[in-house]
């Protein structure tokens, strides 16, 4: 008998025939017994549930009659079934197993992750026939809550797979408007549909609803989604790109392992799947990762020094500082999930150190590792992935053999093969591909012979000898050219293209397809990879053939040439395509550098440096450049270029170093070579990476020299880049015509070339020019377009700067709440991508907004923390500006002496800089300090004090007039939105003048 309660009551026989249960009271009785399945329900409780306050005259007798009717209905449908309803000392019991009730089946399927099947059992509300009955309320509410949770799980899973769920979730939200998880799915769906404004409005509506209904704020998870939308988090992109490898086939024989491992992950923060090669650790990890928000980090081909860098690349964090683990942790705190580290055995210490730091940084994060050995960390839970049992091994082998040969009809041979292969999945997969050529009987006999030949091997576990035997046997069935290709493919890291396979292997590319047919090479889109065990086996065969050194040399040569081929493509309309191509080849580039000749190493790092710079992988680039420079001590143009890259990367990281001397040294390394274009690019790059912090006059001389060289050479990209940088330098001098002239010409040239990054750079000076003149609509238009471009290229530091730019516009137009949201979003992006300059720009914006809103302590803390850093990196303009803001804070507090001291410092820095706008700002600050001093005189002051105050006010007015004249002289009077302090100080002067004089008292 089978019972369905997820909707109107349905009863069926084991054969599926419907069972008629007559009378409403009998159906209610059955539902009551189903609610308490397996437990006795007292007669008086059943009477109360069926009839409430109006029981029949002979209640016990009537109940017994209803029970009899129920038993009769069961008996008619299935002889002997009347005994399902038993009566004992405790009352009546429905004695049926758990799996014959659809609500229990729903919970089982849900627990197994079969969400669609679980939801498919629902036909309406749970216990729909007794929606008002008190006895069913608890069970009904629990099931309805589980249904909603499962719907949310399923919607989130589909959302991670790129499905459109907006229509479904909107309907659910209308029924459950306060359910925050549904709202989170709605916000992501709206954002991915390109409806960011609607997503933000939906969040605002929920916030208001929660406040009105519950007196509460949105929870941290929903707030994190809201914040991610504001900062344009790549994890919310319209077409999510999961880093988890998509399985190509159904997982067989691991149902219990899946349940157990999933339970381990629920109760432990670090779970390591251990077992021999080929046993299926990675495949099980893939299946677990597909059921979670996961970051898949492939460590095969990664060196010990680059483990945390590999995690950073997957999470989307710039690798450019020594505190990278903390930066990765900060990123994961805002979007936590399951981090999967696959193939840890060759770098156990480095992997363990990375995991230890990440778990400490992100309390809500979990880590799943695969390794042949434990990581050895406190709190690590080991899960041994064992070979398949006999039945599962036979199921796996049969499924794969049918796919390869079409028919499998010899059960005895299958059993023999699976027994001889000890249930190792990889061995079964490889053997199954031979069925078509040999047949099952011959395959079984061949395996038996092979094992006898290889028996013995002291110190090697039996399962590993079995796998080796399978690989040996598969190897011997290959032709000579296939063997050559397979062993040479083993030098690649993290996959390869057909072109790479042919070039490095020095063999025809079609051999890869033949190896795919033999399940020795796995296709992954337009790339290919070898399974872990096949890599190890191939490398041993490569060594036996004496080809390791030669093949690694070809590998290094190919990837150095690939980097050189890619470099010019990164400066034009193929930029996105080649960025993605080099993303895929990062592991091969790292590996190539290890085996490259000294000259190849310089070629490789100089070609790959622009890629590392665009992607923000400054730490990786600096390490690679240092390696190449150490191996090439003799002067050469290539060595000079590498030195320039290294200094520029250090400058971009902005770690507090003043790099003037290092820059001069790098530039002087060109002196003995006739390399005008190389020297011009060096002049440009070192200026572009230090324009906001270096000596403005020196930087302008450098950029003018580079412009002249590029103009003579007809180098359009070089000219566009240098004009963009000169436009930025013009910001320092507030030279509005130069900013517009150079910015617009650079934008035009980059547009002709099709370089998206270049258009971003060229647009910056135009944005600043529009802001300076108070043309906020134009500035906003430039910023929004730049923001879209930066997101499309995955340039997240630029996203941070442009988001801060929008925050500045919101600040200037008086929308302080929006300004705070945007600046905070930009600050978090900058931190996640390890860019100090972007972080400083965002936090200064938060400080400015805090000061305008009267939060002086917060403003002082946010602004003051950057003074030391700005001084260290030579950021004179920043020092002048921040010092002025701290002076205004002191003045607003009434500390006019401290204000005067700070504004004097700011005035000195501004004069050193030679920026008229900065000098005017300092003069306005000094005016405010003098006005505050005059206002502070007591009402009963003497005539002398009054005269002194009058003198201070006159000086303040003169300073304001001098500042205004200076601004007008350079054609940049303050727009209305930037007159906050000038108008405020004028008000202080007016109030001070209204104070009574001694003669009026």
From TrEMBL:
Residues 1-96 bind DNA. Belongs to the AfsR/DnrI/RedD regulatory family. Keywords: DNA-binding. The keyword DNA-binding applies. One of its GO terms (biological process) is regulation of DNA-templated transcription. The keyword Cell division does not apply. SMART domains: BTAD, Trans_reg_C. This is Putative ATPase. InterPro entries: BTAD, OmpR/PhoB-type_DNA-bd, P-loop_NTPase, Sig_transdc_resp-reg_C-effctor, TPR-like_helical_dom_sf, WH-like_DNA-bd_sf. One of its GO terms (molecular function) is DNA binding. Residues 1-96 form the OmpR/PhoB-type domain. It comes from the Bacteria.
């Amino acid at each position: 008998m089978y019972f369905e309660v997820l909707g109107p009551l349905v009863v069926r026989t084991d054969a599926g025939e419907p069972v008629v249960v007559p009378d409403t009271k009998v159906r209610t009785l059955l539902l009551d017994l189903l609610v308490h399945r397996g437990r006795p329900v007292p007669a008086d409780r059943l009477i109360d549930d069926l009839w409430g306050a109006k029981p029949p005259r002979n209640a016990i007798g009537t109940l017994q009659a209803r029970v009899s009717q129920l038993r009769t209905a069961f008996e008619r449908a299935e002889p002997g079934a009347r005994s399902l309803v038993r009566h004992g000392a405790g009352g009546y019991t429905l004695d049926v197993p758990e799996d014959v009730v659809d609500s229990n089946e729903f919970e089982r399927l849900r627990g197994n992750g079969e969400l669609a099947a679980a939801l498919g059992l629902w036909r309406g509300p749970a216990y729909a026939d007794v929606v008002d009955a008190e006895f069913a309320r608890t069970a009904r509410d629990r099931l309805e809550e589980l249904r909603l949770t499962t719907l949310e799980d399923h919607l989130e899973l589909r959302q991670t797979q790129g499905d459109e769920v907006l229509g479904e979730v909107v309907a659910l939200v209308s029924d459950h408007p306060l359910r925050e998880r549904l709202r989170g799915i709605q916000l992501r769906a709206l954002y991915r549909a390109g409806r960011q404004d609607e997503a933000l409005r939906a969040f605002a509506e929920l916030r208001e609803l929660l406040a009105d209904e519950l007196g509460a704020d949105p929870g941290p998870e929903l707030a994190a989604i809201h914040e991610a939308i504001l900062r344009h988090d790549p994890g919310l992109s319209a077409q999510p790109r999961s880093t988890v490898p998509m399985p190509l086939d159904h997982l067989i024989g691991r149902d219990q392992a899946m349940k157990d491992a999933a339970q381990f992950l629920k109760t432990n923060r670090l779970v390591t799947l251990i077992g021999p090669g080929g046993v299926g650790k990675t495949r099980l990890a893939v299946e677990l990762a597909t059921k979670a928000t996961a970051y898949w980090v492939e460590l095969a081909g990664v060196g010990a020094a680059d483990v945390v860098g590999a995690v950073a690349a997957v999470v989307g964090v710039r690798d450019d500082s020594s505190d990278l683990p903390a930066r990765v942790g900060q990123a994961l705190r805002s979007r936590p999930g399951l981090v999967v580290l696959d193939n840890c055995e060759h770098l156990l210490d480095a992997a363990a150190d990375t995991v230890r730091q990440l778990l400490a940084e992100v309390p809500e994060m979990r880590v799943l590792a695969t390794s042949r050995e434990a990581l050895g960390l406190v709190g690590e839970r080991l899960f041994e992935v064992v070979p398949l049992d006999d039945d599962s091994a036979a199921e796996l082998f049969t499924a794969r053999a049918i796919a390869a040969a079409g028919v499998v009809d010899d059960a005895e041979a299958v059993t023999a093969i699976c027994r001889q292969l000890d249930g190792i999945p990889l061995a079964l997969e490889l053997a199954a591909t031979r069925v078509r050529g040999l047949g099952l009987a011959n395959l079984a006999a061949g395996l038996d012979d092979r094992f006898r030949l290889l028996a013995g091997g002291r110190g090697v576990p039996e399962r590993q000898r079995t796998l080796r035997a399978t690989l040996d046997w598969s190897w011997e069935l290959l032709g000579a050219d296939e063997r050559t290709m397979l062993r040479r493919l083993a030098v690649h890291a993290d996959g390869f293209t057909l072109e790479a396979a042919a070039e490095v292997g020095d063999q025809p590319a079609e051999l890869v397809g033949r190896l795919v047919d033999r399940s020795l090479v796995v296709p992954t889109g337009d790339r290919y990879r070898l399974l872990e065990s096949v890599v190890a086996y191939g490398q041993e065969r490569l060594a036996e053939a004496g080809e390791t050194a030669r093949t690694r040399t070809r590998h290094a040569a190919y990837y150095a040439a690939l980097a050189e081929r890619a470099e010019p493509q990164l400066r034009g309309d193929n930029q996105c395509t080649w960025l993605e191509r080099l993303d895929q080849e990062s592991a091969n580039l790292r590996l190539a550098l290890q085996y490259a000749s000294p000259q190849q190493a310089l070629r490789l790092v100089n070609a790959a440096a622009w890629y590392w710079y665009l992607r923000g992988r400054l730490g990786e680039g600096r390490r690679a450049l240092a390696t190449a420079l150490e191996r090439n001590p003799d002067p050469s143009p290539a060595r000079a270029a590498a030195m320039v890259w290294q200094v520029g990367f250090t400058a971009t990281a902005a770690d507090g170093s003043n790099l003037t001397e290092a820059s001069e040294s790098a530039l002087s390394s060109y002196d003995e070579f006739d390399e005008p274009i190389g020297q011009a690019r060096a002049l440009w790059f070192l200026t572009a990476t230090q324009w906001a912090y270096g000596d403005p006059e020196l930087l302008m001389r450098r950029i003018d020299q580079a412009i002249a060289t590029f103009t003579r050479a007809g180098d359009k990209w070089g000219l566009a880049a240098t004009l963009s940088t000169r436009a930025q330098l013009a910001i320092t001098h507030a030279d509005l015509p130069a900013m517009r002239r150079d910015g617009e010409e650079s934008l035009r040239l980059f547009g002709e070339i099709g370089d998206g990054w270049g258009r971003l750079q060229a647009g910056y000076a135009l944005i600043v020019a529009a802001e300076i003149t108070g043309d906020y609509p134009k500035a906003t238009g430039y910023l929004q377009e730049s923001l879209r471009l930066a997101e499309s290229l995955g340039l997240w530091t630029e996203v941070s700067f442009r988001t801060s730019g929008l925050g500045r516009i919101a600040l200037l137009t008086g929308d302080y709440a929006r300004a705070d949201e945007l600046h905070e979003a930009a600050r978090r992006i900058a931190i996640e991508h390890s860019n100090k300059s972007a972080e400083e720009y965002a936090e200064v914006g938060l400080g400015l907004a805090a000061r305008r809103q009267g939060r002086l302590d917060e403003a002082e803390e946010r602004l003051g923390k950057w003074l030391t850093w700005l001084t260290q990196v030579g950021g004179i303009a920043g020092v002048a500006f921040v010092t002025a803001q701290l002076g205004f804070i002191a003045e607003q507090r009434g500390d006019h002496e401290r204000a005067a001291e700070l504004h004097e410092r700011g005035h000195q820095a501004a004069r050193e800089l030679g920026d008229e706008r900065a000098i005017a700002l300092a003069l306005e600050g000094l005016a405010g300090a003098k006005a505050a001093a005059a206002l502070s005189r007591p009402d009963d002051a003497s005539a002398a004090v009054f005269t002194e105050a009058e003198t201070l006010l006159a000086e303040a007015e003169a300073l304001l007039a001098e500042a205004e004249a200076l601004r007008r002289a350079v054609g940049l009077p303050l727009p209305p939105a930037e007159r906050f302090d000038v108008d405020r100080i004028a008000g202080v002067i007016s109030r001070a003048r209204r104070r009574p004089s001694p003669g009026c008292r």
